[in-house]
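Morning F.,

Quick status update on the modeling queue. The single chain you submitted on Monday has been processed. Sequence for confirmation:
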Amino acid sequence: MQIATDGAKSALRPDNSIITYCQAITDYKEVEWISDKKNSEAFTNRGMKCNGYSPIDLMVQQTNQIFEQSQLHARPIEQFKKLYPQIELNNYHQEQAQTIKTEYNSLIKQRIALEDRKKLEPGPYLVITSPTSGKQLEITNLIKFDVAKNPEFWKASELSIRLQSRAPSAKMVHSLKATAKYFNADGQAKDITIGTISMKSMKEHDLKPGMSLNQGKVEFHFGISDGMIDALKQQTMEYVESVRNSTPEPEKLQLAAAIHDITHTEESKNYQGLKRAGVAFAVFPDAVVGQLHSLQFTNMRVIGAQFNECAGINFKGEQVAVKFEDGANPRDPTKTARWVIVEGKKLGTIDARSPQLIAGCEALATITSSPSNSLIVTSLKNPDNKLQIDNTNKYTFAGRDWKGEQANITFNVQQPDTLKAPVVVALLGNQALGVLNKQSTNFLLSQLAKGGKKIQGLTITGIVNNAPASYADIVIDPNSFKLPDIQENNNQPLVATVVFFEATVDNNLQAKTDQIMCNMLLRAVNRAIERGYNTIHFVDISPHQLDNPSPAVKLIQELGATRKDINIEYFDVASSKGAIANLIQPDDIALGIRSKETINIIGYAVNQGKAVAAYIPETGKFDRYNLPSLEKTVTATKTEIERDV
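Structure tokens below.
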């Protein structure tokens, strides 16, 4: 490379292949998992990022697959509201539960506040009191500024400060700082930052930059220590123990149920079912765990029944076999919903407010369809034309079960409120049947407009049926409940890895070299099948770009498309060392062409103890390293490789 640099003043020209190789071995790409491993999102909400082929990248890829299959999805706490369905509660239990919950949460909040303050405002702090108003300000992060190095600062009993704005940072989020005047050795006054205004003081007072406090009384305090936090933890534990020991055994379950209940009771219109009843478990863990020994969540509501394979079936308390499965959410296909399957047919999805059983569970369940308050009228002339009549439960024929009867239906337009749109009432004879819904009204009006007719007084003849139930309530028989069989997945792919490298050779040797390279790769595929692998990875670490694609790469692509007995995948990577390090199976191997471009690759693989077979175009022979030394095996391999050449 130095020769290339000095090329302008030298007749000696550089070897471009050497320069290209130097560029290849000094090139690199960002390794994503190195930075992503510290991201709190990794293996919490998603898998870890990886973009290489090193052993760690491979482990990350495999872990990502397992994570995606086993990822836990947060569910609204509202679904767990009925954890204590048989426990009766009275006012005493409710009052006791509220007291326990309030005290416990107060201790937890104090500890969290101290922990947060220790992170944001470490070390000692001072409290300065206004001589006029008596208001107190806390100035924190004293040790983060140079004034802390001045012994006289810590002896001060009075200070005059001024508030100034500062740019918050991740490590110091405070937007206000306090400055004080100090005199330097020349007697000149200078504003020096002494600390930040605490988050607590900023919340308590309406503080703004430019405010000042003169001759305030100063008190220095020790910062938040681990001992203070530990003391609060101990205080919380002692409180929990005192409640647990003072509660009679028969009442523990009732109090746990009461705590759980008041936590999940709606306190405002903005309540979204997200409160957690961790207090019950913290105080009475045995009582809570005892509830989990048997199935408590047996009552569920299934929605969307009118759109699925059981539409039209009116369940009236029959006990049938059901299964829970995951599938696309009909309201958002990019998300997953929990489906209820009845004898192989989709009934609908579990309502978000209902408890859910995990996918794969099976049980016997009593199913009751929702009452039908709508009718579907199908035209005799055109069965594709249907009208829907709603609110039938409010009129004369409420409760009637319609099963394909033919009827003459007359429409009467009414407008009881001039501020609202007219209502189209469906009549059977002289008696009201229901109200034609908006979509059906618009459809009928558009059809009548073509013939210049009006809807008022129109009579049609059609087949009347109850509209499919929109939801169904199911009750699981706990004695029939079966969890899915969780077995070890023995179908994980068994992967063989072949790292290969090509090189440019003399034109008169190129054809044979290409053929030998293809034969080596084809033999690697057949050997992987013989050894029981179901997947083979070909990893291209050629030092520079050859014909795009080369005959070898074309062969891999063709085999990947045509071979049905093994899965073939191709990778082109920049890091030869990372790829070679990934040769971990006993049958993994590095194959390629020996040349001045690839000699270092071969040497590195050999030094790492990897199996290597390299063809030497100039001699027509092979270099073999870390391979079985049996002559019979070598001879057979040579014959197979050179076949068809």
